[in-house]
Amino acid sequence: MTSRTGVAPGNANIRVERKNRTKTKESNSAGKIKTGPMDLPFFITLMILLVIGIIMMFSAGYAWAIAKGNAGTFYVERQLFTAGLGLVGMFIASFIDYHRFRKAWIAYGSFIASIILLILCRVGPFTAPRGEAHRWVQFHSALPTIQPSEFVKLSIILLFAYLISNNYNKMKSFKQGVVPFLVILGVISFLMMIQPHLSGTLIICSIGIIMMYVGGTRASHLIFLAVIGIVLVAVGVIVLMNFAGFNYFEKRWISWTDPFNTDTNRDDVWQTRNSLIAIGSGGLFGLGLGNSRQKFLYLPESQNDFVFAVVCEELGFVGAVVIIILFLLLIMRGFYIAAKAPDKFGMMLAVGLVAQIGIQALLNIAVVTNTIPNTGVSLPFFSYGGTALALQLLQMGVVLNISRQSIIEV
């Protein structure tokens, strides 16, 4: 007996069974796929960080809001609105099967759109520069500016996850495991460096290298790639400083090497100097929530890139360590979710999204403590900024969806 399609029902069942076996085998030969609720430890840690971040951003930013002619709650009201939108997006994303993103038109389309946005940062009627930096785009005066680098991070993660999952068995070869990714990172790095946006370039390249390493690229190939990247970035900095007239990098270098030197231009070292003063003033237990002194117009961007300095001043060393531990717990749980993902695409997607949070947190804390030069990188869930916060929460929703589909041992 055959069906209307002319295929025997028994044969159709065999094909379906083989297909399911193949999927399970790709995931884990010793386990089976389980669907269920989102990962609560990851979700709870994320919510704690978000709540603390909004409170600290409000404390760090209300003096600057008043100084700019706004209400003291100006920044926190906008941050709460953005967080609300981001949370809605996060919960929606947590219920959308992440396999829907494993499509060529999504992976390549988001990458092309990101390139267009990066080009608009430098040319065209939509560029919205701030000083020497051309990192923002504004499509209408009534609309807020957006920072394309935040979209670039997501597009790189999607594209790399797609390419690695499709060529997982070929990642050991230089042609398949290095060349395509080198071209992609090279194009993005060039467009980011002419903004200039060194921190964004470092974050994106670091995400790419981590995903390639987890995806199976040889360590020797990654070392080669890292050396090429360092050389190209160094050449780019030299060219921009000596031929394009940019003194952006020189100022950053001065503020890092000797922030308390009174012979240097005060504006070049002012932010780093006051960040260190804020951290030192906090001591072990801090001055108390709301009692920071440096946020009263001494520390520029205290509500943004340097909010962690206010955290150290108000909550002290103990409070700062607690927040660092919370970030570590989030990252560790995120990698646990990646390890339990039912397929390579889910694993690579989770690795990239979680790595982004970890790299940004690490670089921001390193900048605020003057461990590395000031590169203008925000602290996830803490720094003021609509584009970044909304996208970060949306991305965490994707991780939560991956956690709904995990492998259990049998």
Please tell me about this protein's structure.
This protein has 410 residues and is an all-alpha fold. Helices cover 66% and strands 2% of the residues.
Core attributes:
mainly alpha, 410 residues, globular, two-stranded antiparallel ribbon, 66% helix, disordered N terminus
Helix content: 55-70%
Radius of gyration: 23 Å
SSE order, one letter for each helix or strand: HEHHHHHHHHHHHHHE
Rounded average pLDDT = 84
Roughly how many Å apart are the termini?
A: 37 Å
Unreliable runs? 1-30
Silhouette: globular
How are the strands ordered across the major sheet?
Answer: 1-2
Brief overview, please?
66% of the residues lie in helices and 2% in strands. It is mainly alpha-helical.
Topology of helices and strands:
Layout: H1 9-27, E1 31-35, H2 40-67, H3 74-95, H4 104-122, H5 148-166, H6 174-177, H7 179-193, H8 198-215, H9 219-242, H10 248-257, H11 266-282, H12 307-339, H13 344-368, H14 386-404, E2 405-409
